[in-house]
Amino acid sequence: MNITQENTGNLTATLKVELEKKDYQQKVDQILKDHQKKSNMPGFRPGKVPMGMIRKMFGKSIVADEVNKIISESLQNYIVDNNVKILGHPLPSKEKSPTVDFESDEDMVFYFDIGLSPDPDIELSEKIKIPYYDIQIDDKTIDKQISDVKKRHGQSETPEEAGPEDILRGQIVPADDPGTGSSDDEPKETTISLPHIKDKKQQSKFIGAKKGEQVVFNPLKATGNEAEAGYIAGNKAGEEINTDQDFRFTVNEIVRIIPAEMNQELFDKTFPQQGIQTEEAFREKIAEEMARNFQNQSDQQFMKDAIDKLIEESGMDLPDEFLKRWLLESNENKITKEQVEKEYSDYSKAMRWQLLENKIAKDYNLQVGDDEVRAYIRNYFIGQMGALPDDPEADQRMESIIDSVMQNKEEVDKVYEQLLNEKVKNEIKEKIKLKNKKISHDDFIKLATKK
Known about the structure:
Blueprint: E1 2-7, E2 12-19, H1 21-38, H2 51-81, E3 86-92, E4 108-116, E5 129-136, H3 139-152, E6 155-157, E7 167-174, E8 188-193, H4 200-204, E9 214-217, H5 219-223, H6 226-232, E10 247-258, H7 264-270, H8 279-314, H9 320-330, H10 337-363, H11 370-385, H12 392-406, H13 409-431, E11 433-440, H14 441-449
Helix pairs in contact: 1-2, 8-10, 9-10, 11-12, 11-13
């Protein structure tokens, strides 16, 4: 058997696999003999069916199976042995592969298209400038957070009429005729939070509504956001419903939250066992928690901007047409060509970043050891259960839990990836030039949610 590679483009190539009868015949003969030993046909003693009949009945399928196995193993070995960096996996060439007759052909030739991985060219330095947002915490921001905390720990009641701060639960359906509200669609359960209705004209339609009444409104105009409009309209994953039209909402329940009082009970519910006894200490703790959350949000936005900038700096190409074909053929009957075209931009971006991330990890020797994975798992469970007692048995039980998690390869891979991502992020922040920008939380939210 012989495998040769021919480049067909900047990042594409074809592998030619030449197979001779001697490459598969010995294995085929052995399998045929096994079939003969197990055969039981009328007119013949068990295991004595003539080999000619066995070959006629099973020869073609056995040859096909064995040839496919040999090709699969040989392609994998060729790629590994020759350090061929590919994306996806080899696909049978539609243009070059001849029709093979497994019954009569002895020497066979197969062609496989492959997509080659680019070698990312990126160097982290201060020449690369990326914004880092310092989200400001002022009294207004703290007041808003405290207001949310009061609502979260407040009491609910069910008023007769809806007010601007209420939550409505009910059923929604497209209103084909806004005048009559008639529609053949099946109603869907949904929840509408009136404070989240940004358009005052649309919000006013709900104010004063009573249980059992119907409200006709436009979800997209109400929210100004396709995702939020889809949620209100009851869209499920994979559904596509036009939310820029009138819908009819039937009020089944009105919920009003009465905020909790600023007192010791609120302090203890919000921060259990923290010993907070004054409003001043409560505000300081709220600000501390917000600073931690804002740091995470800033880091997330930084990585989003860094990914875009580093992909741009790398100027990396991909074998796009091959990858589109690979996505389509690898997910046969699960995804359409139209979906591949629609989603390919996001897939391509994710692929480019994965290659760059691996490059950065390799260039700067960023590694994650088992001890780091174990420490992460330990801290996770301590965060869930609280501090461990100063007891050797408790520590032993924890080690047993960690050992159990470490046996789950999927979970370990997730932790490994998360820790490596953190190291890559820190390396980028250290090597490039950060352009620190102060920003209010409201403005940051607008920036972060902007497409």
